[in-house]
């Protein structure tokens, strides 16, 4: 009897953590349909690794860690889900890294622009504060119409939100920089 009660209690605890995640995601989707918000996302899944190979160049994708085939499919699925859920992109900005540009373009939400403050500062902590403040200002100044879509790197998202996102994960924010919710990239 005690073992059954313990299992039931464990299931209840697990479910109590699952419900807020669904509510959080539902609030995020509703905010995107409303417009005037910010979608901050980590690029889609890449080939295995951390950072980029020594000597990589921004003007040569063959020297960088790039999207995997699954990541390319993931980016397309993310874009399709955003369109199907009524999100209208007002502006789409991305890091100059090929994995971010490719994610933004494969989502097929509109014209994509490189915005230097979204560039990775992994291993370059001297740039972190300046870039993060530039993105915070951009977010604070967003008035729409539509959603401001920002495609960047884990370190950038974490610096702005204290969230460590998975590949393709989106954090939906208001122009005051408050997180409304998160959307996983696992739509399948």
From TrEMBL:
<dbReference type="InterPro" id="IPR029033">
    <property type="entry name" value="His_PPase_superfam"/>
</dbReference>
<feature type="signal peptide">
    <location>
        <begin position="1"/>
        <end position="23"/>
    </location>
</feature>
<keyword id="KW-0732">Signal</keyword>
<protein>
    <submittedName>
        <fullName>Phosphoglycerate mutase</fullName>
    </submittedName>
</protein>
């Amino acid at each position: 009897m005690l073992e059954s009660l313990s299992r039931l209690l464990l299931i209840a605890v697990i479910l109590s953590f699952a419900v807020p995640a669904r509510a959080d995601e539902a609030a995020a989707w509703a905010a995107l349909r409303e417009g005037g918000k910010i979608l901050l996302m980590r690029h889609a899944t890449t080939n295995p690794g951390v950072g980029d190979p020594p000597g990589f160049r921004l003007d040569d994708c063959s020297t960088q860690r790039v999207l995997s085939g699954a990541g390319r499919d993931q980016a397309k699925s993310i874009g399709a889900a955003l369109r199907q859920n009524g999100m209208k992109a007002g502006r789409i900005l991305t890091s100059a890294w090929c994995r971010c540009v490719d994610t933004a373009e494969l989502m097929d939400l509109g014209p994509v622009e490189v915005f230097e403050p979204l560039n990775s500062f992994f291993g370059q902590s001297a740039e972190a504060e300046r870039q993060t403040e530039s993105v915070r200002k951009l977010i604070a100044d967003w008035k729409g119409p539509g959603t401001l879509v920002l495609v960047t790197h884990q370190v950038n998202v974490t610096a702005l939100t204290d969230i460590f996102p998975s590949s393709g994960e989106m954090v939906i924010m208001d122009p005051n920089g408050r997180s409304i919710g998160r959307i996983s990239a696992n739509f399948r």
